[in-house]
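Lab notebook, bench 4. Still working through the backlog of constructs that have no structural model yet. Next entry is a single chain of 110 residues. Request: give me the structure tokens for it.
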Amino acid sequence: MATPLIAGLTVAAAAMGGRYMVLAWNNLSRTAGPRMRRFYPGGFEHQMTRREAALILGIREHVALEKIKAAHRKVMVANHPDAGGSHYLASKINEAKDMLVGKSKTGGVF
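Model written out:
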């Protein structure tokens, strides 16, 4: 009669201990791990600035030309209209590259 009771209490204790370990692991990994990258929450400005261009490409405002081209290629591959991306976003990405390279225009395409 006591054996099933002891077995039941042992299983319950193991389950509660396992739950505690999972919760502790989740809390530990959430605080010790790298933070997720946050994206710029705002929309596009009427006339693009160097800051906005850098935010679109995901780089700093003053970087080498090679880094600008590499970032442009990476973002453009992900948002190209032939791959299901938007023509508007592609034009903004190109405008951002032109702004940082120095081929600035007075206004955007749209």
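Notes after review: The CA atoms of residues 17 and 23 lie 10 Å apart. The chain has a mean pLDDT of 84. Flag for follow-up if needed.
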